[in-house]
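Design job #97: recover the sequence.
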């Protein structure tokens, strides 16, 4: 698991009520990394936030972490 995926996993586990249900999958295509975050049904609101603010913040933090790895990251949350 890359550093960016670990950052998403750490932050998501801190946000939700059931951290054992957090799942981060990673696909690489050259210098692009596609991350997918899945959480329990009742925790979607905590990860997305009011108006998508938390989801947006997660994406910004992941992009900063990706700079260290010299890759471009796309974070998809849920379906």
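Job complete. Output follows.
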């Amino acid at each position: 698991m890359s550093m960016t995926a670990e950052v998403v996993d750490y932050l998501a586990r801190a946000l939700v009520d059931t951290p054992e249900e957090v799942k981060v999958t990673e696909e690489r295509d050259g210098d692009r990394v596609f991350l997918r975050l899945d959480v329990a049904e009742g925790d979607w609101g905590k990860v997305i936030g009011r108006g998508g603010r938390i989801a947006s913040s997660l994406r910004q933090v992941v992009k900063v972490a990706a700079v260290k790895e010299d890759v471009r990251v796309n974070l998809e949350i849920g379906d």
